[in-house]
C-alpha cells in the first residue's frame, strides 16, 4: 500500500475527483466563486437546443471548427509521416540526419512554434508573402487560414508517428516481399497487399492518438489565427477557456457543459484506444 | 540492382525537399533573432540580417524589455525538473506495487486505473483549477508540478517493462533478508533504468511545453513558465519581431539540447509507447 | 552514451539546486505579504510596466512606513481575478489600477470602497488638480471611488514630409478630416504611399461613432450597437479600403508607417516610444481624424487608469492611509509615466518643462482639447469592446457583412449582460 499510495492519492485528488466534479458543475450555474446552484439540464438545453442563445452559437461554431480541424489534420498527420517513413525505409544517405530533423519540432513548445510561424505567414515581414508575390493574407482570409493551421500542425507534430511507422516497416518480414516479387507483383500492389496489412495495428493506434490529440486543438488557433477571420477558426476549447477564465464574470457552468460535450467526442475515440491497449496486455 | 538505385534516388530527393521545408522556418527565425529591429521595420523581409546584432538576446535575457524572459526560463526549469523527479519517484513506486506486491484486488484496481485513461482531461480543467485554488497554489510552482504526476500512462509504461523482468532476483534478495523497500531501491530501480529514462525525458519535455494549464493557473507575470509567457509576449502591444524571435529560440533551446544528447532514447520511447518492440 | 546522460543529469540537478536556492531566497522576500506592505496590482505588462516599476522603486526609496509591492498581471487575467478574490475574501490587493470603463460595474457589484473619508487628510487630491475627464469618472452617487493616474487617448501620428507633400494644409488647424485624408490618399496612391492605415478598430470605431452622434448605450444598461450610425462608421472605413488608400489586409500598419510609406497613422499616445525607434522618420502627433473642422465637435477616444480600493475587510485604517499617501505621491511624481508616452492625470505635471516638450501634451494643455477626450464609461463596455475587436477588421476589409456583424454583436452583448447576475 505504501508503494501505490502516493500515486493513488494524486490520482484521486487531481484526476478522479475533478472528473466527477466537472460533470457535476455542468449541471449548475457556477461562477467559480459562490456555491454552485443546481439547475438541472438548463445548460445543456441552452447550448444544444436554444437557437437564440449566444452559447448555442458558440458551441456549434466551436465544435464545428474543432471537427473541421480534426478532419483536415488527421489524414495529413497520417499520410505524410507514412511517406517519410517509407522513403527513410530504403535507407538513403544521411538517413539519421533526416530522421532527426523531422522529429525535432515535436520537442518545441507550441507557443514558440506559433511565434515562428505567425512571422512566416506575416504579410509585412514574412518570407511566404515575399517569395510569392500577390499572395493572400494567409492568417486572415479563408481558406488560407485553415491551410496555414494544417501546415503548421503537420510541421510541428508528425515526428512521433513517423518513428512509429519506421519501426513498423522494419518489422515487416522480407520474405513476404520476395514471395510477392516472384508472383510478379508491382510496387503499388506490394504496398497495398503486404505493407499496409502488416502495419495495420500501428496505423490504427496512431490514428486514434492523433485524433485525440487534435480534438484538443487550442494553441494553434489561439496564437496563429486568433480564432479569425470572423470566428471561422475559433475552436471549442477557446470558448471554454473564455467562458470559464476570461475577463468578466466566469460562466463556469456553461463552460463545463461545453467541456463535457467535447469530452464525450474524445471519449468515443478513446474507447477504441482502450481496447487496443487491452489487447496488448 | 538498377531498380534499387532509382528508388533510393527518388527517396533521397523527396526527403531532401521535405527537409528544406522543415529547416527553413527554423533557420529564418534564427537569423531574424540576430536582426536589428530598425532594419526589420524599414526593410520588411530579408533572409539574412543586414546588420548582425545580439541586442535582441541581450534585451530579452537582461530584462530590458517588458517581458521577463530570463525569469520565465528559470521558472520553467524549476517546474520541469521538479516534476520529472516527482513523477519518477511516484511512478516507479506505483509500478513496483502493481507488479511485485500481492494484495487483494490488485489487478482489478489497475484495470480500473487504465479504464479511467479514457476520460478526457478537458472535463477536469475547471474543477482542477478550483482544487488548486483551494490548496492556495494559484501562481505557485506546485500548481504546474503536482497535478501532472497523477497521469496513469507512465505507470502503465513502467509496469509493462517490469513484468518483463524475472521475479527470481527479488526472491533471492528476499532470502537474504531484504524487505520490500530495500528490494525496490537495490534490485528493481537499477533494472528499470532504461524505461525510467524514457519516462523522465517525456515528462521533462511535456512539462516544458505545457501550455493551456499553466496559462490558466499563472497570471502573475513573474511566476509564469516560458511557454505561456511567450503567448503573453505575442499579445503585448508592441510587436517587436526580433525580440519575439529571440525569446522563441531561447524557449526551444533546452529541449533541443536534451534531444541532441538523448536522441536514441527519444526514438526508443516512441516505439515503446506504441507497443512495438523496437 | 550512459556516461553522457549521467553527466547531463547531474549537471541539471546542480543547476536546479542553485536555481531553487535563488528562487527560495527570492520567494521568501516576495511571497509573504509583510504587515507593512501595500500589495499593488496593475495591468501594466507592456513597456509601461517598466516605468511603473521605476515609480514604485522611487517611492519606496523615500522610506514610507508602508512600502509598495508592484504586481503586474495580464489584463484579462486581472479582471478575471478581481471578482474571485473579492468574493473569497483572500489575497485581496491593497491597491489596484483598473480601467475607467470598469468602475461602474464594480460599484454596482459592491466591490469598491469609497475613498471620501480617507482622502480628507490629503486635501490636494481634489478635482482642481486633475484632468477633468479622468477625475469625473471616479465619482458615482456623490461618492469618490477612484483617483486617476492618467488619461490615455487614441490620436494620430503623421509623417511630416509626406503630409507636406500630399496634404499641405490639412494640419493648419491641427484637425485632419476624413475628407482631407481621402483626398491625400488618392493623390499618394500612384506613388505607393497610403493615407489611411487601418490600425486598432475598436477606438477608431468608437471615436467616429460618437462623432456621428451614436452612443453605445441608450440608457446606461441597454447596449445600442446595431444602429444606422454604426453601419455608417464601418462603411466609411470600408470605403477607404475599397478605394485603395489603406494598408493591405494583414499588412502591419506600424511597419508601413515606420518605413515611410504612410502619411497618417492613427494609434494610441502610448505607442510613441515604439515610433521613436524608427530612424530618419520625421513625425508629429495630432488629433484623431474628425468628420468636421469644428473644434468643439472633436472626439478623441480616451480611457484612463484609475487607482481603486477593492473591498477588503483586512485592510485597516493605517494601511489605507499608507495607500492614499502613495497615490498622493504619484500626483507630484508622474513624470516617468509621461515618459512612457501617457498623459498623467495630475495637473502638477503640466508645469514641468520636460513634459511640455512631449508631443502628447497638446491634449492636456488647452481646455478645448481636454473636452474632446471622451471616455466610454458604459457599464458593459467590456462586452462591447470584445465584440468590436472581433468584428472590426473583418467588416472593414469586407470579410464580414457589416449589418449582420452588428446585429450578431448586439445579440451577443445582450446575452452576456443577461448572464451577468
Automatic annotation (TrEMBL), chain A:
Task: Give the UniProt keywords, A-Z.
Answer: Cell membrane, Membrane, Transmembrane, Transmembrane helix, Transport
Q: Which residues form the signal peptide?
A: none
Q: One GO CC annotation, please?
A: plasma membrane
InterPro entries tied to this protein: ABC_transporter_permease, MetI-like, MetI-like_sf
Membrane topology (UniProt): Multi-pass membrane protein
Transmembrane stretches in the record are 7-27, 69-88, 100-123, 143-164, 203-223, 251-277
Q: Does the keyword Acetylation apply?
A: no
Q: Would the keyword Transmembrane turn up in this protein's UniProt record?
A: yes
Q: Which family does it belong to?
A: Belongs to the binding-protein-dependent transport system permease family.
By what name is this protein known? Sugar ABC transporter permease
Q: Look up and give the organism this protein is from.
A: Fictibacillus marinisediminis
UniProtKB/TrEMBL annotation, chain B:
List GO terms (cellular component aspect).
plasma membrane
ABC transmembrane type-1 domain sequence ranges = 73-262
A Pfam family it matches:
BPD_transp_1
| Location relative to the cell | Cell membrane
* Ranges that cross the membrane: 6-28, 77-96, 108-129, 141-162, 183-204, 241-261
Entry's InterPro entries?
MetI-like, MetI-like_sf
State the Gene Ontology BP annotations. transmembrane transport
Task: Give UniProt keywords alphabetically.
Answer: Cell membrane, Membrane, Transmembrane, Transmembrane helix, Transport
Protein known as: Carbohydrate ABC transporter permease
Organism of origin = Fictibacillus marinisediminis
From TrEMBL, chain C:
Q: Which residues form the signal peptide?
A: 1-22
For whether the record's keyword set contains Nuclease, the answer is no
Which sequence ranges form a coiled-coil region, renumbered to this chain? none
Which InterPro entries does this one have? Answer: Bact_solute-bd_prot1, SBP
- PROSITE patterns xref list: PROKAR_LIPOPROTEIN (PS51257)
The source's domain of life comes to: Bacteria
Q: List the keywords (alphabetical).
A: Signal
Statement: the UniProt record of this protein carries the keyword Signal: yes
PANTHER family the record matches: ARABINOSE-BINDING PROTEIN-RELATED (PTHR43649), DIACETYLCHITOBIOSE BINDING PROTEIN DASA (PTHR43649:SF12)
Record's protein name? Extracellular solute-binding protein
Species of origin: Fictibacillus marinisediminis
